[in-house]
Amino acid sequence: METAVTQESFDSLADYWADSSHQLRWNAVFVLPAWLKVWWQELNSDAELYLRAVRQGKKIIGIAPLLVRDGKASIIGSADVCDYLDFIVTPGMENDFFTTLLDDLRQKGISQLDLGPLRPDSTVLTNLVGIAEQRKYEVICHPEDVSLELDLPATWDEYLAVLTTKQRHEVRRKLRRLQKAGKIDYRCVNGNRPVEDSMDTFLKLFALARQEKADFMNARRESFFRSLVRVMGEIGLLRFGILELDGVRAAMIMGFDYNGAIYLYNSAYDPQYDSLSVGLLCKVFGIKQSIESGKKKWDFLKGDETYKTHLGGREVPLYRCQITIK
Questions:
Q1: Residue 172, CB-side half-sphere exposure with 13 Å CA sphere
Q2: Among 205, 288, 207, which residue's Cα sits nearest to residue 250?
Q3: Helices 165-181 and 278-292, interaxial angle, to 10°?
Q4: Do 120 and 321 form a contact (C-beta atoms < 8 A)?
Q5: For 204-240, how does the pLDDT look when each residue is reduced to its tens digit (9 = 90+)?
Q6: Per-residue pLDDT tens for 263-317?
Q7: Are residues 178 and 115 in the same domain?
Q8: What residues contact residue 25 under an 8 Å CB cut-off, 6+ apart?
């Protein structure tokens, strides 16, 4: 069956995401229409939008959410706020989708694809690279970073059993110490108005963090974070985990609940409670709550911070690929 390429909008993508009959596979929260739109509005500077769908008849077989600068196309997003990226493709239609997409890019004078960060199971690495190599295109792929993730067991005790003896002892020791320090309350916030209040508190805690984190949250990224929280809350995916000690918010995590997984996007805590390990324990409580609510995966996301390994995370390599289109 012949294929055709159609120009799309962020709103049309939102319609496709909401309509399961399209059978498109949205691999990660970072390529959902709401996320793509916020990034484009808040962080794009000088790129041209290449937002295309490939169709077979009335059926959409894939979406290419790309931006173009100087003849080079990349997936919408940036490594500072998007942990991994990919195309959106109907399973089993990868060959038709990428063959049509490469032809369209070539016709429009786009000479290079610069794609990343990419998981090993991304459609880029499992399908596009092979198709490009068959066409004798120059393909360069290299490891760029790592992400860590944890498959969640059915119970808290099973989770503790996954940890090494030393790790398990440390988690229990820190929990006991915190319990002795005062009244502990951990809760999850995912509503509308409470989300706005929670974001204000999160940013205040974030500003108290080490200088590297404080420098990261400039005015432009703060605007992105606020917009992201609003739209992800509207579609029901946002989660704030809040750890309070004697009624005072000591630590918070910001994440997303998508496809049975919790994405730990960012975290913040008050340094005055550093001796009580509130930053780490807020994540521990988040893992415990995720297990109790039946989630299947806890995604620590990009970065090889030691605490991720100590909490049971395993490394997943992330790649970048450059494909020269001839």
A1: 12
A2: 205
A3: 110
A4: no
A5: 999 997 777 778 899 999 999 999 999 999 999 999 9
A6: 999 999 999 999 999 999 999 999 999 999 999 999 999 999 999 999 999 999 9
A7: no
A8: 88, 89, 90, 91
Residue type, 316: V
Residues 6 or more apart from 65 whose CB is under 8 A from it? 13, 31, 36, 51, 75, 76, 87, 88
Cβ atoms 291, 154 nearer than 8 A: yes
CATH number of the domain where residue 242 is located: 3.40.630.30
Give the Cα separation of 27 and 85 in Å (integer).
8
- Which structure tokens are listed for 298? 């806890």
CA atoms of 194 and 244, how far apart (whole Å)? 15
State pTM to two decimals: 0.94
Place of tokens 């962020």: 10
* DSSP letters spanning 137-173: -EEEEEEEEEEEEEE--SSHHHHHHHS-HHHHHHHHH
Per-residue pLDDT tens digits for 116-164:
999 999 999 999 999 999 999 999 999 999 999 999 999 999 999 999 9
Contact 106, 114 (CB under 8 A): no
Looking at the structure, do residues 116 and 55 belong to the same domain, yes or no? Answer: yes
Residue 69 sits in which domain range? 3-146+317-324
- Residue 262 forms beta bridges with which residues? 257, 298
User: Cα 35 to chain center, whole Å?
Assistant: 9
Distances (CA, A) of 227 to 145, 194, 206, 209, 291: 27, 15, 17, 22, 29
- Residues 8 and 138 placed together within one structural domain of the fold: yes
Determine what percent of the chain falls in helix, strand and coil, rounding each to the nearest 5: 45, 30, 25
277: closest CA among 302, 239, 306, 317? 306
The burial of 165, by beta-carbon neighbours within 10 Å (0-12 exposed, 13-18 middle, 19 or more buried), is given as exposed
Q: Please state, in angstroms and rounded to a whole number, the distance separating the CA atoms of residues 22 and 202.
A: 37
Domain co-membership, 106 together with 159:
no
